[in-house]
Write a structure and sequence with these properties.
Elements (H helix, E strand, L loop, with lengths): L6 H5 L5 H21 L9 H13 L5 E2 H8 L7 H13 L4 E4 L18 E4 L1 H6 L7 E4 L6 E5 L6 H5 L1 E4 L4 E4 L4 H12 L15 E3 L12 E4 L2 E5 L2 E4 L8 H13 L5 E6 L7 E5 L5 H11 L3 E4 L4 E4 L2 E4 L2 H42 L13 H11 L13 H8 L3 H5 L3 H23 L1 H16 L8 E2 L7 H4 L4 E6 L4 E3 L6 E6 L4 E6 L3 E6 L4 E2 L4 E6 L8 E7 L6 E6 L10 E2 L8 E8 L3 E9 L9 E5 L5 E2 L6 E4 L3 E12 L4 E6 L4 E3 L5 E6 L5 E5 L3 E5 L12 E6 L5 E8 L4 E8 L8 E3 L8 E6 L5 E6 L6 E6 H4 L2 E2 L6 E5 L5 E4 L14
Parallel strand pairs: 8-17, 26-31, 41-46
Antiparallel strand pairs: 1-3, 2-3, 4-5, 6-7, 8-9, 9-14, 10-11, 11-13, 12-13, 15-16, 18-19, 18-20, 19-23, 21-22, 21-24, 22-27, 25-26, 25-28, 26-32, 29-30, 29-33, 34-35, 34-36, 37-38, 37-39, 38-42, 40-41, 40-43, 41-47, 44-45, 44-48
Length: 838
């Protein structure tokens, strides 16, 4: 009798349950990676996509098929439910590349689902039929039930993986390959085949703008930022004209409402008017800046999203992480190899056809067919006789004559003999020889052939597939600078607390939850803290404000007494950078030190104060003045200059101070359309607090604005930006479409309203500003004509055009011509004679 095995024996044997548990997870992970989630590098398709396309090719008769029928056909090859096939089919149809659609296929912008499979139809596109199918170059395998053959991979002669993109989550890894532009992929493939450098960047059906400076070829760790296009309709209305990739209009609106509820932005109403084009209208709350709101929308809502690519593909049955440039190179090499195989197959077919046509010609021309009329003992003898009759002509052929060749000749119908045209056979042979020569030439020059193939694809299918997503660098939006101040903060000065929860105490102002708060105490302690419900600073708080990091203009003037020596000191300092929640002593560290006087000066103002000494002190003069302008601005840890050794009774302001700082230097960043103090872009000059900026746009508007750094300007439209000086004369040349001419006008700006655009050229649909300057004696250099017909002229505009009102139409300068070029002479020559030409 066999000995009974213990339970442990089964668990630890590979044939038992334990053995199955050893491999089941790895088997499952491999299956998900290889068969469901990650595309193959050869054709850029996941198995379900490949099986759908193969099924559609089997069904293809040029007409549309119901999607429900396509799903049913695909289920012969795909061992999963109809839902997974339907979803994959809709996803491919929405990408508008391989599949032509009919009916309601949903909308990736709004997130609307496609109609039911029984209501919508599809067929393969002409592009798909051209690039994805060739039974002669396809490797086949048995389907999951062994009943049919299916392609291992499709012979894809195009970088489909990069054009469509791919996304999938497997076990232990994921893939996210972003879609790229059709035309740019073909151009890049041609450059690669020619040995030139190339770069490819994502492009999305949803449009928008994209900063791909950290794309790193789509590898892990890379990132792109995508923004919706937001335009200012007027000071109270914004319009969103696109959605970022992967975001629907519904999601976008929900994120806007959420940001508004959280107090990050402040809007009155948001409405979706999306139809053929995305159109989301945002109505702003009263007094809210549209520029700051646009920045806040990018900072706090899905109007800007960050996408992390992760290009993972199946290479030789293993997942591999590659960059998009490597993927394109592999695709181009694969395409070249497929084209080579197609040419070799075609060459073999042509040579076989040439051989048989030549046999046929000899067979009839030399009357070898008459061997069929002779009486031979057997059919084999007939075939031998025919073969022997061909012997004198075998040198004309390129391969040996086989028994199958002879049998094929004898099967020709008798009527073929009577209708035979030897000249026609000669023409066929000549045409075949020309084709063979061309195919051999193409094989010898495979790169040129592949380039021509790509160029033909671009010519046939490239129209309408131009880039939709604009590539540009994004400026970094500081969330603190654009967050709406929607939280009230209070202070209990005596007890030394600040916070949002002290509603019974003194109200300080409105702040955002992203702000830092700076506070000073009478004991000479400074501290910077986050906005919170209640925070202890120190007893006897004398000043609380929002802290601006790196602020080199706000200057603190202070007089304090050293508790140890009794000497009073004066100091001026800035606070640019700190460690949050750390206490900074501003006096000599002594418990009895205290602040006598403290002032905050946004532009480094230096006031004069009156100091009254204690009446009991031994000083002869008990009242004195102190002028802070005599003090140098130093660091916050400096001791300061001695004011007096005698005890002070009081310090009071006597005379308000003027700024001791030079004007603030401003630059215009013409890449991002921003004002800045970081020396980026065009230097505009030094500005005092009340000075303004003049901005003139190519569409014929001018605007006077202040120095607020959060403003946004359309850098592509800015023709002139400079410090505004009301007495300066503006000289402008603009194109008048109606009269087909350039006109010129000179005027003084009479408006004073800030942040309002004023249109100052003639109204007209295609009118635009050509040139503008505020030079006192501007000289315009005009060049017209081409080649040897070039004519040049210098126009002293101030001599020929009078100053007029800003609404005036101006005077004719010259007739319009596409060859006319204009620019201002940097230094006007007073001796030059003005001349005009028409």
């Amino acid at each position: 009798m066999a000995q009974k095995k213990d339970k442990e024996d089964y668990i630890h044997t590979d044939s038992g349950i334990g053995g199955q548990y050893k491999t089941w997870f790895l088997d499952y992970a491999s299956y998900v990676i290889l068969e469901r989630a990650v595309p193959a590098i050869e054709d850029g398709l996941k198995p379900v996509q490949r099986r759908i396309l193969h099924s559609m090719k089997e069904m293809d008769d040029g007409r549309f098929n119901k999607v429900a029928n396509i799903i049913g056909q695909s289920m012969q090859y795909h061992p999963h439910g109809d839902a997974s096939i339907g979803d994959a089919l809709v996803n491919m149809g929405q990408k508008d590349l391989l599949i032509e659609t009919q009916g309601n296929w949903g909308d990736v912008r709004t997130g609307d689902d496609a109609a039911a499979a029984r209501y919508i139809e599809a067929r393969l596109s002409k592009f798909a039929l051209e690039v994805a199918f060739n039974a002669k170059t396809t490797e086949w395998q048995l389907s999951y039930d062994g009943r049919k053959n299916e392609p291992v991979t499709l012979p894809m002669k195009f970088p489909l993986l990069l054009a469509q993109g791919a996304e999938g989550i497997a076990v232990g890894l994921a893939t996210k390959i972003l879609p790229h532009n059709f035309c740019e992929l073909i151009d890049a493939s041609i450059k690669y085949l020619r040995g030139k450098r190339f770069e490819i960047l994502p492009d999305f059906q949803t449009g928008g703008t994209m900063d791909a400076s950290n794309y790193t070829e789509g590898k892990r760790g890379g990132k792109i930022r995508v923004r919706a296009i937001i335009e200012e309709v007027d000071k109270k209305t914004l319009i969103i004209k696109s959605v970022p990739f992967g975001v629907t209009t519904t999601q976008l609106m929900e994120s806007i409402v959420k940001a508004n509820d959280q107090g990050k932005i402040k809007i009155k109403k948001v409405t979706d008017h999306t139809a053929a084009d995305v159109e989301i209208i945002i109505e702003l709350a009263a007094g809210i800046s549209p520029d700051i709101t646009i920045d806040a929308l990018y900072a706090f809502t899905d109007c800007e999203v960050s996408i992390s690519p992760n290009a993972c593909v199946i290479v030789e049955d293993k997942p591999k992480f590659l960059g998009v440039q490597e993927l394109l190179k592999i695709s181009a090499d694969n395409t070249k190899e497929l084209l080579r195989r197609e040419l070799e197959i075609k060459l073999a077919e042509l040579q076989e056809k040439w051989h048989y046509t030549s046999l046929e010609k000899i067979f009839f021309e030399e009357k070898i067919y008459k061997e069929l009329e002779k009486k031979h003992e057997t059919w084999d003898k007939v075939l031998e006789a025919i073969d022997k009759a061909f012997v004198p002509f075998k040198k004309q052929l390129r391969r040996d004559i086989t028994r199958e060749d002879i049998i094929k000749l004898t099967e020709k119908p008798v009527r073929r003999i009577y209708k035979l045209d030897i000249d026609e056979l000669n023409d066929q042979i000549k045409a075949l020889e020309d084709d063979i020569k061309q195919v051999k030439h193409d094989l010898a020059n495979l790169v040129d052939y592949a380039v021509a193939y790509y160029e033909n694809l671009l010519k046939k299918y490239g129209k309408g597939r131009e880039r939709k997503t604009e590539i540009k660098l994004f400026d970094t939006i500081q969330a603190k600078a654009v967050a709406i101040a929607n939280i009230k903060i209070y202070v209990n000065r005596a007890d030394g607390f600040i916070g949002t929860g002290l509603k019974k105490d003194e109200f300080i102002g409105d702040v955002s939850d992203l702000d830092d708060i700076i506070a000073f105490t009478k004991g000479g302690i400074m501290k910077v803290v986050k906005v919170s419900d209640k925070t202890f600073i120190g007893k006897d708080i004398i000043h609380v404000a929002v802290f601006q990091k790196n602020d080199e203009r706000t200057t603190y003037n202070m007089i304090y007494v050293d508790g140890k020596s009794g000497t009073s000191y004066a100091k001026r300092f800035n606070v640019t950078g700190i460690t949050r929640d750390k206490e900074y002593p501003l006096t000599k560290e002594d418990a009895k030190s205290k602040v006598h006087y403290f002032s905050v000066n946004p532009n480094g103002e230096a006031e004069i104060v009156k100091i009254v000494l204690s009446p009991n002190c031994s000083a002869r003069i008990k009242e004195l003045e102190y002028n802070f302008s005599e003090l140098e601005i130093k660091g916050r840890s400096s001791i300061g200059n001695t004011v007096t050794k005698y005890p002070i009774k009081s310090v009071k302001l006597k005379e308000a101070g003027k700024s001791t700082l030079s004007g603030r230097k401003l630059w215009f960043d013409d890449q991002f359309g921003r004002l800045n103090t970081d020396e980026k872009g065009i230097f505009l000059g030094k500005f005092e607090a009340e000075e303004r900026i003049l901005v003139v746009y190519s569409d014929g508007n001018y605007e006077i604005t202040d120095q607020e750094l959060t403003q946004r300007f359309d850098a592509d439209k800015v023709l002139l930006i400079e410090k505004f000086e009301p007495e300066k004369i503006v000289t402008a040349v603009y194109y008048d479409k109606e009269k087909v001419q350039f006109s010129v006008k000179r005027f003084k700006i009479e408006t004073t309203t800030l942040h309002n655009k004023f249109f100052f050229i003639k109204e007209g649909e295609e009118n635009y500003l050509e040139a503008v300057t505020t030079e006192e004696e501007p000289v315009l250099l005009v060049q017209s004509g081409r080649g040897q017909q070039i004519r040049s002229a210098k126009i002293k505009v101030a001599k020929v055009v009078e100053i007029m009102g800003w609404r005036a139409l101006g005077a004719k300068l010259t007739d319009y011509s596409k060859s006319v070029e204009m620019q201002w002479e940097k230094k006007a020559n007073d001796n030059a004679q003005p001349e005009l030409f028409e």
